[in-house]
Amino acid sequence: MTEIASEKQAVGKRLGRVVVVTAGGENPWIMINALAARFAEVTVIEEQAESKRLFLSRRARKLGWLTALGQFATMIASRFGKRFTRSRAAEILETYKVSGAPDPSLPVRSVGSINDAEAIAQVRALKPRIVFLISCRMLKAETLAAIPCPVINFHAGINPAYRGLMGGYWALVNGDAENFGATVHLVDAGVDTGGVLYQSRQSPAKNDTMHTYPLLQTAASTEIAIAAVEDALDGNLRPVDVAGPSRQWYHPPIWTWVWNGLRRDIW
Fold it and tell me: Are the C-beta atoms of residues 33 and 99 closer than 8 Å to each other?
């Protein structure tokens, strides 16, 4: 029996170390739980959330303080607004038969940042066959170079048109609803610029908002993530060419978000 064939045994799950890197949260745990249901050796590396001060200063250097503060205000409003969307969120979880609750049986290793030397050492010590990123910091070039296996990322947006943040929201704002969806892609030094492996598309409901778009994109995309990990374990990762414009997006400033909400009912 070949090594690949033997890996497909073992309690109905496939063997082969899968390391998931995340900053935690309900959406990432939807994906982690789905991967753990299919693969027997899933380990989570959970990094600490980035400080708001560091976020603001970095964003201000890129876009200016006014825009950065406007985006931060939207993030606060979005977090507050989640309490009003729990019924829709529960509906999404039920529709796709997924759970965002952390699984206490899965090993979780806490680190400050995936780019820290200690975190890199932990990843290397695990000897993964594949590293899967979801909702974590960008990997520095030296971090990526130090990981001795393929690294893939789940992105809640259709690449390359909606790289960065809030891809589903911007697709709707741009009148591009057919490109509301998600991408699993290889990781390189850019922002969601690595080769596309799989994509999925969804049709948001009328009562979906910026609070539930990423949840819908994640819950509906567990199968493409599983397919990409299967390909990695088989040594069969095959990126595809996706034509079209490439742009990086950010959170909308609060005034843009409110304007689109009031005028176009896109919240």
Answer: yes
